[in-house]
Specification:
Largest sheet: none
Strand content: under 5%
Radius of gyration: 18 Å
Distance between the termini: 28 Å
Oligomer: single chain
Length: 143
């Protein structure tokens, strides 16, 4: 069973990271132009989805969260082939931020990179935090 304190601290960290990624992604979307900026924004979209899924299920295996984040992003991208997101974007322009309007296979690559990067960063940071907790526990035992 997961430690409730570590779930709380994990959720807090995921929330803070999600807020930062959302701000960064929106700034990039509105302030930067070009294909590279668009691809980075797409990768950040999937990083944000990863963080949201991780927040909802903090004990889930990280690779499964990454796979779910990629799948979610890919389904949204593929749905753009139907034209429905473009129609929704005309009716309610803010929906373009979530659903996009036009399909691009290159976006799928950006989503994969974003999911992999989020998983790698989450794993590395979690191991570092666990190591720090272990050292603190050992220090408290030796006193």
């Amino acid at each position: 069973m997961a430690n409730p304190h570590s779930s709380k601290s994990r959720r807090l960290a995921l929330f803070i990271a999600g807020a930062a990624v959302a701000v960064l992604g929106l700034a990039l979307h509105f302030l930067a132009a070009g294909d590279a900026a668009s691809l980075v924004a797409d990768a950040l979209y999937t990083v944000l989805v990863y963080l949201l899924f991780g927040f909802v299920a903090p004990a889930a295996r990280r690779h499964r969260v990454a796979l779910a984040a990629f799948a979610f992003s890919a389904v949204i991208e593929i749905a753009q082939l139907t034209g429905i997101p473009a129609q929704l974007g005309q009716a309610f322009p803010p929906s373009r931020l979530l659903l996009g309007t036009t399909f691009s296979a290159l976006d799928l690559v950006a989503y994969a990179v974003g999911a992999a990067a989020a998983c790698a960063a989450d794993t590395a940071l979690s191991r570092r935090a666990a190591s720090r907790r272990g050292r603190a526990w050992l220090a408290s035992r030796s006193e």
